Structure formats: C-alpha cells, structure tokens
Amino acid sequence: MRALVLGFVVMACQSSSHPTIHEPHVLAAGATDRYPVALRSGESAAIVVTQQGVDVVVETFAPDGARLATIDSPNGREGDEPAEIVATRAGAYHVVVRALEAKASGNYTLAITVRDAAQTRAVLAERERDRREAAAWLRARSGPITLHDDATIDGAGLARFDALWSAARIVGLGEATHGSRQFGDTRLALTLRAIQQHGVRVVGLEASAARMRLVDAWTRDGAGDLAAMIGRQWINRRAFTALATAVRAWNVAHPGDAVTIVGLDDQDSAPAREVVSRAVRSLDTATATRADAVLARIAASDAQAMVFGPSDVTPDDWRFLVALVARLPPDAQPSARTLAQGAEMNCGAPGAHSRDWLMATNLLAVAGERRALYWAHNAHVAHPPDKRGERATSGGVFAERTTYAALALSFRDGGFVAQLPNDRQDRLQTFSVRTADPDSIDGVLATMGRAIVTWRGDRAAPPAWLTAPRPMHWIGALYSNQPIPDQWNRPTRLLDEYDGVVVLDHVDAEPSDEIGIDRAP
Predict the structure, then answer these.
(1) Is residue 138 in a domain?
(2) Which end of the chain is more exposed for a tag (fewer CB within 10 A), N or C?
(3) Between vectors from CA 393 to CA 382 and to CA 135, what angle results, nearest 5°?
C-alpha cells in the first residue's frame, strides 16, 4: 500500500497499511479544499478526515466529475469522517473537504491510503465473506412474510413476532421513514395481530396527545368527524385513520374489553389549547389573562414543531402550566397536562425532560399493567445501551422500567414523503433512495427478501460484522437532497439497539390523495 498524507498535498510512498497523520490543515470559512488521488483501474483509496473543531463534509468524485459519495457522520465537530474510493477505471479521482456550515472554520487532518489492485481484491473479498456470515446468522433467525395490498400479512415470519411477546409487555414498532406506505400497512397488520392474539389493549402513537384523546373517544362512541380529529398532520395520517377504524370495530364487538389509543406527543396541541382556554375563564381575570399569553406562545411553538424551529416558551410558562393543572376542572386537567409537557420540552429549563422521556412515561402511565404497542420512528423505539437516564430514547426508558422489545423496520429501496426544510409554505415532496449499499445493514438484510428477524434472548455469538456500527436507513420528517445527498443513513449497532427487524424490499411514498396536503412542485 502507498500512503498519501495531504496537508499541503504532500505524498509519501510507504509499505505500511497505517497512514501517517499530517499536522492539522486549516479550513477557512467558505473554503472548499480539493485533493487529487491518482488511481489505476482496480485500485482503491481509504480516506480518513479527522475533524478538529469544524463539522466537515467529505465528497468523492470520479475522473469525469461525477459525485461518488457525500459523507457527514453524526459526530459533530470532532472525530473521523471515513470514506473510500474503488476505482472502476484509471484516472484522477478527487476528495473534497468543506464545512457543513458555510461560515464555519477550523482544522482537520486528511490521510489517504492507496491499495493496489491485489490488496483491493483481498479487502473486498474479506468484506463480502463478513457480510455473508452476517446474513447467514440473521437468516437463521428469520421467517418470510408476505405483505398484501389489503394491508394484511401472512407467512412463517409471524411466529418470530409472536415469540417477542413471550418476554415483553411493551413492543416498539419502528419505521425508517415517516412517509412510506408499506410501513403503515405493516404496523397496522402487526398491531391487529397483537390485539387479537397477544392481549394488547393500549396502542401508543408518536402523535398528538390532544388529538388522539378525541380519536380514542371516537373509537368508543363513533361521534364526530374522525378526519377533523386527526387533523392535517401528514405523518401516518392514512395509517392512523385505518388504525382508529379497526380499533372502533374491535371496541364495538368487545365493549367490555376495549383497546385504548393514546397519543404520546405533546405537540400539535390545538384541541388542548381550546379546552384550557375555555376552562380558565372560570378562574380569576389575572390568571386567565396570563393563560392567554402562554397559550399564544405555545401555539407559535407548535407552528414550528414540524420544522424544529425556535420556541419562545419560557421556563416560567412551564411552571405556570404545571400549577394550573390542579386549579382546573377534572375534565380539563389532561389537556392542561399536555400543554405543560409541551412547554417542558420546549422551554430549555434545567431539569426539563426530553420529548423521548415524556412520550415513554406517558405510555407507561396509561398502560399500567396492560400490554402495549408503541408506534414511532426507529430512532425512538431503539434502546441503545450507551444512552441512559435523560439521554435515553423512549425505547431506553421502556427497557429500564419494564420488559420491552424493539422491532425496527428496514427497507432496501423505494420512496418516501418528507417536509422540505426552510420552506415558507411547509410543503411536502416525494423522494426516493437508491438500492441500499451492500455493506449497509439494509443491504445485508435485503438478501433475505421480506422477513421478520428476531434475536432477543439468543445466546449464540454473532459474527463480528454485526457487532460494529453499520449504516442503516434513517429518514426523519424533514429531508432535502442538499447539502448532504447521502444523508439517509445513520451508524447503527443493530443487535444492541433492537431486538428484531421487519425487512421489506421496496417501499412507496404515501400517495398524495391520502395525505391531503399540497406537495412542492
């Protein structure tokens, strides 16, 4: 191997596989540093950019200028950004380093190790062996499933889902995107199975607590307009409607054994604000006047919630709402509690709990000793072992307090809907992702088709490939192809963060007429 150490484009030929790290290179604000790497066909280059005080983006380009990859790991302004080029033809490839934020500056080091064709073949062959071992280990713990167009599932893989309930009181059902149709269909089918066969009587949703109180009442009495209750939130709108309709049918047939739907998120709180605004009129004028001002700030914060915008809610607002709960009539107290929690997670006060913590404790409070399902993004249902206490995900809180199993949803390729960041009209757009990289978790899982894979309680040692962080699809409510085209992956320790995964091949973006919100052109 020959190691190229680039600070001022210095090259040194060595036989060592460990490149020497040059002194930090200064990245000026607004600068883009470009480094040529001459490769013969079949050769490869291992690239490591070590950030020192600046969050950088690393891009690689082919000799014809085509972008090969864009890398920005979620490690902030410190740590390594690894990349790789495998040359399919001879020529001058390029590595580009720039700051994620145009005005940022700082230091970094860049080390490039060039492998000849034989070394490259050996490295790629070893990786392929490792992936095959990982796939075989997972396949031995899987069962196939078929997802039908009517949102039903059958297949031997359902036994893997059933087995999770032997040691869990709460199961988290994740999703890799908020806007893919098959994820909603899969969770609905598994939820109905859990209700019918495993005694689940509470379904907790990453959704408005205020709106889902109305929906839960509708599943019992059928009064009112379900679409208006769910509101115009686009995330899982179709799936929530189907879930409520199915739970309504169950509750009508089983009036003494009802299923409860509970929203766990204290955002999108308009129905709660209306209840509290009316209730405070029975109190003194000063309290009602102050409540009006607090509710106005919460409404403004709600309008920014979907785009993670700023909030003017203050710690005093939070404390005011906490004290207000006990002063209101009992029928208004749940709404006031929702607003207090919304203020808590938005006010930035010391000791305030996170959104994940609040969602988890809300579900635990409603479920009591009953079995429950938790619908949320993969990021929330996961229980990474290095996140505990206030840093815990919702799944981490469940894992600390009860018997819990997390089931991620994975996909090979397809489409999704997401909201455009910094768009004044908050419009949606349909995106698609290419086939998962073979060296990613989704790429390895895709080799087994549609399946349910579980490993909870399995004592067999996994292959080394499965014990390290690997890229896995992770797409939130906000998405844009700029400035990071390849931002749809996050490093994931699959076996540590989840107890199983539902593997889907292709997924489709939710259809426009089901979401009911304008998309961007």
Answers:
(1) no
(2) C
(3) 15
